[in-house]
Every structure is written in structure tokens, then in C-alpha cells.
Fold:
Amino acid sequence: MAVGSARSAALVLAAAVLGSLCLVALSEDEQLEDLRFVQHAQDAPLVSHFNYIVVGGGTSGCPLAATLSEHSRVLLLERGGLPYRNMSNQEHFTDALADTSLASPAQRFISEDGVVNARARVLGGGSCLNAGFYTRASNDYVRTAGWDARLVNSSYRWVERALVFRPDVPPWQAALRDALLEAGVTPDNGFTFDHVTGTKIGGTIFDNNGQRHTAADFLRHARPRGLTVVLYATVSRILFRSQEGVAYPVAYGVVFADPLGVQHRVYLRDGPKNEVILTAGTLGSPQLLMLSGVGPQAHLEAHGIQVLVDQPMVGQGVADNPMNSVFIPSPVPVGLSLVQVVGITKSGSFIEGVSGSEFGIPVSDGARRLANFGLFSPQTGQLGTLPPRQRTPEALQRAAEAMRRLDRRAFRGGFILEKILGPVSSGHIELRSTDPRANPAVTFNYFQEAEDVERCVQGIQTIERVIQSRAFSNFTYANASVESIFTDSANFPVNLLPRHVNDSRSPEQYCRETVMTIWHYHGGCHVGAVVDDDYRVFGVQGLRVIDSSTFRYSPGTNPQATVMMLGRYMGIKIQAERWRK
Structure:
């Protein structure tokens, strides 16, 4: 098979592995099925009372609720269900991108920038859906955030004892590590959770049997009599009231709907230390504040929402670290691997990689079945030359059939990708409607600032050196030029942005035209703008936001470790405040 045709055919399947960065195998979580404190929203009482109401059973909400349950009565509300069991990586990706029902673990959305994205909708949040890489924030990040370093470290250790493992590094990932060092991303930092310049192997939430562990695992450490978890509960608004002697509106409960549309009310128990805490994530927390009347006055009034607090910064400063990648066809079979190695450059870009075993899905009869991966699918690659209106389900099916006839050697390879630090560019979230089930409109303004473009260019140049390195030579065709590899990748339709067809692309053009998400979006409820240093919402009482929406910049190379840590960290601090006279 000719190198050129192998490379072209492989690009048909290019986005399959990229999809696995976002949505891969969910845990079997048999333990959670035995927990008596987990119930379906339809079985929840119409009225109930708790010390703490935590809205969002995701990466920060689960450790927060588990910690608070040690001494209090806590309700954790999650709009999705339990992590699915006994399903392959690819099957879950298909369900998450194609299914809009409550049974799907994620909602697909397209930002106003034209980049396809996904929002978790499952107990455990993004930790159920991501590539599993675990790395802490830098010491500088911790100092800038004003966090207690000792408590931060103990909270990270609590997370790590529960669900973090040292990965086995397969040959493709080992070659990437050696190639990064050869390309000048030094020193070699070995295996570490720390965020330090150079090349390292990070932690993973996949154990040695390949089983995913998630933030939902933290609930096994909860006090059973102190915690109630309600699934498929969609919170529509926070309840506020005026209180004598208090200058601001006081949160005293929430309203949520079960899948049948029945409205349930949950109230805080009497007492000044009881609180509603939003952990609904970068999209969910600003959205819920606005639906509850806390947000930009003109925007809320345009949707017919009664304004409780005019807070113009709610939904502002939302950012997503842009990701750009290149697919490298391999002359030899490549095993499936997710992110295990990262190169942290001095220029502010992070280099990672994922690889796939021929991108085929084995089934019981030994045949190869190719699943639908939504917009990131191989079928979409086949449709890239068609006008959008001609990209019908029938055309998608024809593309899938064509793929089954391709030589399996065409599907070998892996992706090297880069994500930039920060970013500096940011945008905003706005309501599309007053329906709490609908995703808000999101604008990230990718690469609006020149500093972000420059970091991306330097990251792309590092990837070029990796591809040309001796260390990576076993996984590249000898007569394939770097320029041809990047040109082929640039032609793959990974987003909805317009393309400029030309024979050669500058690195700047490559960055702008092939931008994707790595699902590390953050902001919208910044500390100092929407919440104070203790994550209390300005202008009201009894309400906090504790999740990635409070971040101005994404922590570390991958944020899940720090989001989990923050849930534990703030749980301990809130408990201490409760017992302080």
C-alpha cells in the first residue's frame, strides 16, 4: 500500500482518537449501585430539608459533598445518571455525541466560534468522560489563587489515594517521551504529579486493569447517613428571600424537576451556616445564577427574568484552551493509549499524545465495526468535501460503508497535540432561553489575542521537531515529510470554521483553522468578580460557587486534579467555619 494512500485513508479516521480524549470508557462503579443514599429524582420527596444543597455531581461536587457529609446532612443533585457499565470506549463516545436524551452522559454543543464541544451529564462529571490524565497545578498557580498550600497538598493526596495510578507506558508513548526530550523539552522529570517545565509521565485515573475511576468514587468515602444523591434532577432556579437584619437576599433552597416534569422543592434547614453550593461547572453555574436572577440586568430582562442582583460579570471571562493536533500515520501497528506523557515547554505550550490500535472496534465475532463518532467521526472525514447541506445521515452511512472496504493498514497511527497555557483570549456565556435543560450560548474567542497565537506556533514547531526526531522514527514513514503530514491534517474538517485552500499554510493559519477544544473550558464566575476568596457569591448570602467557573486560567496541563482538590479543600474549610464560634 502506498504511503500517500495510507496517510490519506488514515485521515478518514483521524478524529476517532481525538474523540477518545473527551469521551472514553466509563467506570463500572458497582459500588455506587449498592449505596442506599443514591436515588432517582422521581423517587425523591416533593419537599425536603438539608444543611447543604450541592448542585452538580461532577468533578468538584462529588468530593465536596462527600467531605461535607462527615458532619452534616447533604443533598447532591445531579442532572445525569450513574456512569454506564460494560460499554466500550467507542460505544460511549457514540452515545454521548449522538443522543440528546437524559440517558446520554454528555451534551454536545457548538460554540459560537464554530468549535464542537461537550458538556458532562453524569455522576462524576468530566472525570467520567476525559482522557484520565492527572497532574497538579503549579506552585505559582496555588500562590496566585491565595490557597493554603498545606491544605492544598493534603487535599491532593486525599484525591490521589482514592483514584490515581501510575500508568504503564506503551512503546508509542515512550517514543513520544524520548522525542520530546530530543526536541529540547527538558529536563526529563520522570513520573510525577507536579507541574514543572520539561517532559514527564503523569498520573492516570485508569487502574492497571484499564478500569476508569471517577469523582463518583469519592462518594464511597461519604457518611451514608449524611448524604443523599438524587439523579436526573434538573435544577431550574435558586430560591431567595429577604431576611430581617440582612442587607442582601438570602438563598434558602432550590427547585428541581424530575424527568416527568414534576417540580420538587428542597429547603435549607434553619441555621446561619447552611448553604446552597453550585458545582455545576463552567456552563452550568453561570447559567443557573442567571436563571435565578443574578446576572447582567439587561440580558436577564431580555429573557423576562426578574432581576434580583444586577451582576454584570456573571458569564464573563469564559475561556477554553485551544487545542491543535496532527495525525501521524504509522508503518507499524500502534496500540491504544490515552494521554500519559506531557511536554511542558518554556514557551507556554503543552505537548501530549494519544494513539489508536487501527481505530477498529473489535466485536465478539472478530469482525471490525466502525462506530459513529459524531462530528469527530471518521465518517465526517469522508464527508469533508461535501457542502454542509449534503452531509445527511444517508451520506454518513455511505461513508461508513466505504471505510469498511479500506485496508486496515490505513488506520494505524496516533495524534500529537498541543494546548496553550492560559489562555489570554476569553469570551462569555449568555442564555439562549429560560429552559434549564438547554445549553447556553458560549463564545470563547479562540486566538483573539496575539500571545495565544504565538504560543500555539511555538507548540506546532515543537511537534515538527518531535516528528523529525530519531526517537520517533519507528512510528513515521521514512519518506513522509513534515509538511505533507501537517497539510493532510489541516484538510480534515475538525470544526465548522471556513478554510482557506492553499498549497502551504503558515503555522499561524494552521493554529486558527484547525482549532479544537481539549475540554478545559473555565471561567464565568471569577474569584474577585462574581465570588469572593471563599467562593461566596457577591450580593447575596448563603450561596457559593465552587468549580472551574471560578478559574481565570486553567490549572496545570489538565485541570481535573485541581478541580477535585478544590472540592475537598473547600469542604474542609466550610466544615471548619461551621464549628467556629
About this structure: Confidence is low (pLDDT under 50) at residues 1-30, 86-101, 357-391. The chain is about 30% helix and 20% strand.
